[in-house]
Amino acid sequence: MDEILIVDYGSQYTRLLARRVREIGIYSRVESPQKAHMTSDTKGIILSGGPQSVYSENALKLPNWLVSSEIPVLGVCYGMQLLVQTFGGVVKRGETFEYGSTKVIFSEDPIFSNLPKFSDVWMSHGDLVEKLPSGFLRIAKSELGVIAATCSKDKKIYGFQFHPEVSQTEGGMEMIRHFVFNVCNAKESWKMEDYAELKVKELREELGNSKVIGAISGGVDSAVATAVAVRAIGENLKCVFVNHGLLRKEDELVPQILSQIGIDVKVVDASELFLERLKSVRDPEQKRKIIGKTFIEVFEREAKSVNAEYLLQGTIYSDVIESAAASSASVKIKSHHNVGGLPERMNLKLVEPLRELFKDEVRELGEIVDLPPEILNRHPFPGPGLAIRIIGEIDQERVNVLKKVDDVYTTILKENGEYHNIWQAFSVLLPVRSVGVKGDERAYGYVVALRAVDSSEGMTASWHKMPFDLLRRISSTITDKVPEVGRVVYDISDKPPATIEWE
Ligand code: XMP
After folding, report:
1. Cα three-residue angle 246-225-377, rounded to 5 degrees
2. Minimum-distance ligand 1 atom for the alpha carbon of 380
3. How far is the CA of 381 from the centre of ligand 1 (A)?
4. CB distance 433 to 391 below 8 Å
5. Given this model, what pLDDT does residue 146 score?
6. Looking at residue 25, what DSSP letter applies?
7. Is 77 a catalytic residue?
8. CA-based, 20 to 30 A from 91: which of 148, 168, 408, 437?
9. Inter-residue contact 423 to 454 (CB < 8 Å)
10. Residue with CA at minimum distance from ligand 1 atom 17
11. pLDDT the model gives residue 157
12. Residue of 23, 77, 98, 379 marked active site
């Protein structure tokens, strides 16, 4: 099976590159610069972006073997700058940075064939290429005149200053496709069914006859991880659903849906314990850590009762990357509870079969392992649940209010058919009260924010352009059915600069 090797210099988007390559039917393997090596199946190499400057003292370098190799290479952002510097060009700090959507002008290179001469691409750099090495041509420049792409036909090297893997880059997939099929001559040979088989085989080998406890959180990820693990080890997987009291109505139904397809789940109600530990806690990172730690404690107890050695978790790649556990070179954004919140010493070994996958790949895998659409088509839901959607302190009253609001919001979206046009929709309870009028009385109610975003993998997102009439209906139904709420607002922030969740 042909493969593309992706060398990870710590970019937020490294796995997205890997996934884009898999999307076009080629297996991709991600390795650190220190461990990167070719096999007889390697048809090309992509160097990722990264947070460092290539000229800084401890900058990560190209693997030595790669410098003299004749294999096709595509360098993205830091990857391009590294190629330029290694082959004799100059990289320096720019006077103006280019971040976000940027206009570029393409030259007539086959890698841009069929693309408009002027296109929008996604940039994220402070350093720039000042001088190209000999034999390298400039094949794109930005409106500011910055070298946006280069190529050396002799060495079969391409470099992009922008990120072709990000959906905001127009024609990014065409560029990757051209590199993989026409420059590397790779042959399409990869599909998600192969990945499912590979994971089942790997889990069987790793787990042998050991007992594993499966953490069902209510979300898509843990359900898919469970369905894959059931295929691998059958009855040796014991599934537990911990109700931490911070779930939405729809999450509480997940154990029933799973039991209908033959996956037995034990429900443990630990809501009092979680709410007690979260009392007076306001800091979101603290909330995540407490929830992560308490989860593990409850699981360890359950695990003991079945003699489990392993804990199965539905951690996916965006959880890993944003907690900076993806590679030693990446930078921490927030600690998702499955990852950053784990206690230092755990009595269970972790199994995370979805660690390399993005949300939509997880859904695709879920279909292959026969999960029903009620589970697969649900919007993502964070492990810490409503705890990070109640800004500030959490108590039972606030949980009840937010649960009711969320139920109204999602029910209307589903009735209206809008739910499936949205990547993730939820409501947030704000720590402020606002004056209103009810009947002829002054009222002083909660403020809730509605959020809905369009995204394909959660790494970037745009606010969803919700029809006004629908917003009006949602707002008035919330204030009718949840009298504690006096004001409803709609969040119109993109990611970046905001994140999807508010905490
Ligand atoms: P952000 O807020 O980081 O969200 O833009 C990206 C995706 O991750 C989810 N998310 C979490 N998932 N534990 C999780 O399991 C967490 O602590 C957490 N924080 C955010 C979020 O809902 C979105 O889908």
Report:
1. 65
2. 24
3. 7
4. no
5. 93
6. T
7. yes
8. 168
9. yes
10. 336
11. 97
12. 77
Please tell me the predicted confidence (pLDDT) of residue 344: 45
pLDDT, tens only, 127-186: 999 999 999 999 999 998 999 999 999 889 999 999 999 988 999 999 999 999 999 999
How far away, in angstroms, is 319 Cα from ligand 1 center?
7
| CATH 3.40.50.620, applies to 192-376 | yes
Q: How far is the CA of 155 from the centre of ligand 1 (A)?
A: 41
The two structure tokens encoding residue 63: 């693997």
Tokens of 219: 């979300």
Ligand 1 center from residue 24 Cα (angstroms):
27
Alpha-carbon span 259 to 246, nearest angstrom: 22
Which tokens is 261 given? 């397809």
Which of 23, 151, 163, 457 is flagged as catalytic?
A: 163
Mean pLDDT of the chain: 90
Does the beta carbon of 458 lie inside 6 Å of ligand 1?
yes
Q: What number of other Cβ atoms are within 10 A of residue 468's Cβ?
A: 9
Q: Is the CB of 385 under 6 A from ligand 1?
A: no
pLDDT tens-digit profile of 422-471?
A: 999 999 999 998 888 777 777 789 999 999 999 977 888 999 999 999 99
- Rounded CA-CA distance 418/434 in Å is 29
Question: What's the rounded Cα separation, in Å, for the pair 222 and 257?
Answer: 13
Stated pTM of the model: 0.69
The predicted-structure confidence for 349-369, as pLDDT tens digits, reads as follows: 889 999 888 888 899 999 999
Q: Is the CB of 215 under 6 A from ligand 1?
A: no
Which residue has a Cα nearest atom 21 of ligand 1?
Answer: 382
Asked if the domains at 3-183 and 192-376 fall in one CATH topology, the answer is: yes
Distance from Cα 442 to the centre of ligand 1, integer Å: 37
- 250 catalytic per annotation: no
Q: Is the CB of 337 under 6 A from ligand 1?
A: yes
Q: Can you give the three-state secondary structure of 324-379, one letter per residue?
A: CCCCCCCCCCCCCCCCCCCCCCCCCEEECCCCCCCHHHHHHHHHHCCCCHHHHCCC
* Residue 426 alpha carbon, nearest atom of ligand 1: 22
CATH architecture label of 395-490? 2-Layer Sandwich (3.30)
Instruction: Round to whole Å and give the CA distance between 352 and 371.
Output: 18
Give CA separation, 360 vs 197, 377, 394, 419, in Å. 18, 10, 31, 16
pLDDT tier at 343 (50, 70, 90 boundaries)?
Answer: very low
For residue 203, give both structure tokens. Answer: 């889990």
The count of other CB atoms within 10 Å of the CB of residue 480 is: 10
Per-residue tokens: 149: 């792409």
Class at the top of the CATH hierarchy for domain 3-183: alpha beta
Distances (CA, A) of 404 to 212, 426, 485: 35, 12, 10
Answer yes or no: are the C-beta atoms of 336 and 314 closer than 8 Å.
no
Domain ranges of the chain: 3-183, 192-376, 395-490
165 an active-site residue?
yes
